[in-house]
């Protein structure tokens, strides 16, 4: 008997999430993981590494609660928002009985996490404008315990309409939790749902320090929710989720000085994103550039240009989204430094669109 025969059947059938690091590549311009392109100056302070850390470090919790405008008992710190996705499934979903619902194209870990725990995955594709298809969602809510909504959505950059989220919250009241993934909310803070938690006890918000805080390597995220939800998640979280150095750096990043640096970083990335969007629209091989509210842009390319491979071969690593529904020939481009974005544009300008490309026919 092979070791694989001892594994759970759903794990054997599982197609793992293909993170940027798993996909690899050899380049010097990494624009495939929505990371900040430069390292921040934070570093761990001397500490007692012979002791276990607190399960929920007080300084981190208090600082994040103040930043989000919430009480400390509404905040859970965890190992990235990815852990929060799993904690919710473990706490609220019965394997083989309950389901989670999400709306592709969207972040892939909702699907992978559910499948890992033997929880059914129910999908309702987004509409052509990548907003929620509310009638279709309403028709598929039976048996659903968690509805994941990513806003701004990864990879499309779409901010989901607040009226649709309110309708979803009303539809799920007493039936399911709505989980709003706000990993990119610092790039459009006016769209946060944090102020809604008082009115909707079944709303959960996911946050991270990986994007605007430039700390992807730290693996620190948060779940924001009512105190009752937080207490349930504390039952299933690991005893020591944040190592001492992680908690130390997170606390510094959430200080007044750290928040000021984050906001300056957001302004810089937003300006570069706007420049890149305009420059991409001037490239013959680019068929469409979609408006985005994160630290990335989604663009559709002329298939004859082979843009993904052409840039890959030049050491410019983007994220190919063609396998996602409705995103054929789409690439997601992380906003790097201005110099890195200029390299992308210069490389694309060197590609020649075919005579019969959709863009040229439309011109």
TrEMBL record:
Pathway: Amino-acid biosynthesis; L-histidine biosynthesis; L-histidine from 5-phospho-alpha-D-ribose 1-diphosphate: step 7/9. GO terms for biological process: L-histidine biosynthetic process. Its cofactor is pyridoxal 5'-phosphate. It catalyses: L-histidinol phosphate + 2-oxoglutarate = 3-(imidazol-4-yl)-2-oxopropyl phosphate + L-glutamate. It is an enzyme of class 2 (transferase). Its EC number is 2.6.1.9. The keyword Transferase applies. Keywords: Amino-acid biosynthesis, Aminotransferase, Histidine biosynthesis, Pyridoxal phosphate, Transferase. One of its GO terms (molecular function) is pyridoxal phosphate binding. The keyword Transferase applies. InterPro entries: Aminotrans_II_pyridoxalP_BS, Aminotransferase_I/II_large, HisP_aminotrans, PyrdxlP-dep_Trfase, PyrdxlP-dep_Trfase_major, PyrdxlP-dep_Trfase_small. Residues 47-348 form the Aminotransferase class I/classII large domain. Pfam families: Aminotran_1_2 (PF00155). The modification N6-(pyridoxal phosphate)lysine is found at residue 211. Homodimer. Belongs to the class-II pyridoxal-phosphate-dependent aminotransferase family. Histidinol-phosphate aminotransferase subfamily. This is Histidinol-phosphate aminotransferase.
